[in-house]
Amino acid sequence: MAKTPVQFRLNGSDKAVFVDGGENLLNVLRRGVGDMSAKYGCGQGTCGVCTVLVDGEPQLACLTLAETCAGRSVDTALGLSDGPNLHPLQTAFMEHFAAQCGFCTSGMLMAAKALLDRNASPTREEVAEAISGNICRCTGYEPIINAIMDAAAKRGGGSNREQGHARV
Amino acid sequence: MLEFRKEYFKDERDDRLNEVGQPRQRQDMLGHVTGRTRYFDDHAFEGLLHLKVLRSPHPHARLRSIDTAAAERAPGVKRVIRAADVPVNKNTLLSLINFGKDDEPLLAADKVRYKGEPILAIVAESEAAAYDALTKVRVEYDPLPAVFDVEEALKSGAPVVNETYPTNAFEYHEKYNHQKLRFGDVERAFAQADFIVEERYQMSPIEHAPTETNGSIAAPETNDRFVVHTCTQALFFSLGTAAKLLDVPSNRLHFLGGTVGGGFGGKVDSLTEPLSILGAMLTGRPVRYVLNREEEMLYGCPRGAERHYVKDGVMRDGRIIARKVTSYFDAGAYTRLSSYGAVKCIAHIPGPYTIPNVHAECYCVYTNRTPATAMRGFGITGVDFSLEVQMDKLAHKVGMDPMEFRILNAYRDGDMKAHRREAHNCALIECVQVAAEKASWPIRDEYRRMNSMTGGGGERAVIPPTATDEGGRIGAGRPATSTPPRPPPPTVAPPPRAPVPAAAQPRAPQPATTQARPAVPPPPAPPPPVAPAKPAATPQHGATRFSSVFGTRRR
Known about the structure:
The structure holds two protein chains of two kinds. Chain A is α+β, with helices and mostly antiparallel strands. Chain A has six helices and five strands; from the N terminus they run ββαβββααααα. Chain A has two domains: 77 residues, Ubiquitin-like (UB roll) (Roll); 79 residues, Orthogonal Bundle (DNA polymerase, domain 1), CATH 1.10.150.120. In chain A, α2 packs across α6. In chain B, 21% of the residues lie in helices and 18% in strands.
């Protein structure tokens, strides 16, 4: 099958891959460039564990044609931290026990990041709405919503980063 | 916030411990929030092949013929795996602890017993190629009558689902078709009860629906071993299962796992590992077998359906004097873990209540439905749902508050349970009191003052004579007239213990008492139930556990 070259930026780095016609972004990320942070859960766009940002917008990688990402920026949970410094959302997820098995966490974080990037102080309802396409089967949604609210409140404070590491 | 009430659990936790009882961050949390946690599917292999199975469209059918010629020639196909390729194509999960007979093939050989049962597997260069090839397989089925209802399945003349168990019921100790519990004489007590409440409860199967579907990747390793990345919740259990089905020493299998994307009981059945490994053995390449979401939801072994019939005798003052339960566990087509679930069910009856007459039977039944497995308290959850709904109905019947009704009937420390073990560490009363308080549910002072540590033991610690038939068995019921004479409650001197044949006599974990409890305990002066406190015996606390499979006790 003929393959198409596709170039895009992944977490700030240039990537070039050959993709099959109709191949989805999730497969390209996982098998093509080795970023395993986005997961396969349903392949139908219903569970949200493959959520990544394409040009800052949350997208379901399993339903996104890889070829449509040419020339665009893709962000995944692997690129969320700033070197060793965790993103406030990551710190808040740790502090609020907002992950148990962890399988939905990458997608949750990216959906939450998209929200906070466009709305720095969301209401609880807005947070719930933002993660309504992301299914968690372990911890329930309350700790996750609490973590996102807390991250929004602390964002820019900066002091919670060290605390997050200290607890590991 | 966790609250530990030391007055009830004073030695449950040593306050001098530095780590236990302290909040600590999960060791895997950093991996989760950075996206670096590696699940089974997050491992890259050069030359990875993909395995998909052909599933039966029929719930029950004989396999007349299978033609794979076209599939084998399909693009990208490396190998078609048939039942004959499986070295030991019959297993039951709990055979690893010598519980039950081998009853399930890895790939169906002669017939299929549930819709979705794997018949053969195709290993191909891509998932798409494997799916395409599956459409080219030709299978001729002779559909057979199917049975989907547990009680229908137990009737004579019902289709035989699983020939290993021709009566469609699991055989305990190779001769009993159900689990049995007998304590006192329910029929006699029913005759004396003010009210009888009899209900039927039915639960549906429940799929765990983990966000990560079941799957594994197996790859040839050095030294003729195979490395297996798996989502299993039970790493060594799955290793043992795979070693048995593939007839290899377990040291040829190197299982890596423990990172599970949601399990809840649905990842203990080793659904994929044996085929992944077999695929790797037959092709010499890494093989990945992952259920897609549709397979996970339809065929990924749910919590089984249960049906419970509960018949209770209750007195006007709220005391339950008899409870009779008949339970059916729908195992689906194969045993998996349902036999054990039924053991847990019978061990939970009659619930956390002191009831002097208990009669229960629990069947693990085969039907042409998806095999059931573990899920979050399986064996207990369904019967507990039934018993607690029943408790509400009983409370309504006698006109009592449902919270107070539970407090009245709850175990107290020192009470004898229907399983002939003394109740310790009881805390239901306190739980109900706290629940009522938190819910601003008014309960009367006398019920608020009750506790689990007083009021138990004494007469409530007595094992009553257990009703038996003429042959000394506790099986079939028998006429009430053959009941050994008992005193009319409440003041007549206790009779000698009823002669219970040694074979049927339960082993009491304590010295025999000389006092038999009447089938119906004396009506108390309205609550609290003030049986004499257990003489001198300090309440035992601490974890005494009981293995319901082996009956061993450990501290």
